[in-house]
Amino acid sequence: MNCPICGSSKTKPEERFREGVFYRCGDCRVVFTHPMRAGSREYYEESYGALAGGYSEKKWEFREVFNSLDSLGFRTGKLLEVACGPGWFLKMAEKKGYDVYGIDFNGQAVAYAKTLGLKNVLVGDIGGGFEKLGQKFDFVVLIHILEHVEDPNRLLNQIKEALSDEGVIIIDLPNERRTELKFNLRKRREGWDYPPHHLTRWNADSLSNFLATRGFKTIYLNEERISSLAQVLNFVLGLIQINTATGLATVAGQERGDKHPHDGKLIGHGLILFLSRLKRFLSLILGLILLPPIYILSRVFYIRGTNLFIVAQLK
C-alpha cells in the first residue's frame, strides 16, 4: 500500500475498522485510511445542514488564528477560508479588518453566510476550483478541513496557486498526539476520527514535513494546551466518549432498529433508547467526578488538547 501523501511504499497497517484499514507511512509519518473515500456533499448537508462547521467566537482555533497573525505582524489582507461553512469565522475576520472570501460545497451553509452580510462566499469544490473567486490571497485558512479531503496534495497545490507571493497558509486540525488518547482503554478513537469524516491523521512532525516538501516554511506552530475550565470539560467528555463508545455503528442507527453489528438481530427501539440515555446520564456523573482533579492536574502538567495549529509561508 503506497502512501497517498508522499508515495512511499514503506507503510504498515496500524488500525483496522469496519470499512477499511488505517496505515502509517514510515517516511512522512502520516496516518491514512484505505480506501480514501470522503463523505459526499449530500452526506454533509444531511448531517450538518446550514450550520455545518459552526463554532462560537470563543473557540480556541478561531482565537489562535488572530493571535498568531498579530504576533507575526500581520494585520490585514485578503483572506480565503476553505470550507467556510456558515461564515462565522469569516465574520470575525471581517470585523478585524480583513478582506474576506469563502468557499464551501454546502449550499445551505453558503446561503446562511450571505445572511450575515458576507458577499464574497460561493458554492464550490473545497478541493480546488478557487479560480472562480478571481483573486490572489494573502492568507488561506483551513480549520478542521485537511483531514477530511481525499487528496491533500491536490488541495495544497490549488492553495499555492491561489496565494500571493509570500502568501500564508493557516491550518488547524486534530492532533494525533492529543493526551486523551493515552488513556484510551478501548484502544480506539472518537467516532469522528474515522471515515467518512477523517481520512488522515497528523502530528506536528508530519504536518510540518508535508508543508516543507511542498514549498512552505513553518513560521508558527502550536499544540493546544488544556488549561481553562471549558477545555478541561471538553477533555473529560472526550475521555469518557472514547472509553464508553459501543463501536462505529451509531446509537441513532440502533435506535432506528438497525441490525446489531455482532449478532445480526434486530435491536428493540425502546431498550436501545433507554440504554443510550442511561449511558449518557452515567457519563455525566463520571464527568462531574473527574472534572475537579483533572482541572487541578492541568495547572501543573502539560495536557495536550485536540488542536494542532500551524502557520506556514511560501518560500
UniProtKB/TrEMBL annotation:
Membrane-crossing segments per the record: 281-302
UniProt-listed GO biological process terms: methylation
Keywords noted in UniProt: Membrane, Methyltransferase, Transferase, Transmembrane, Transmembrane helix
Entries under Pfam families matching the protein: Methyltransf_23 (PF13489)
InterPro entries named among the record's database cross-references: SAM-dependent_MTases_sf
GO terms for MF: methyltransferase activity
Protein name: Methyltransferase type 12
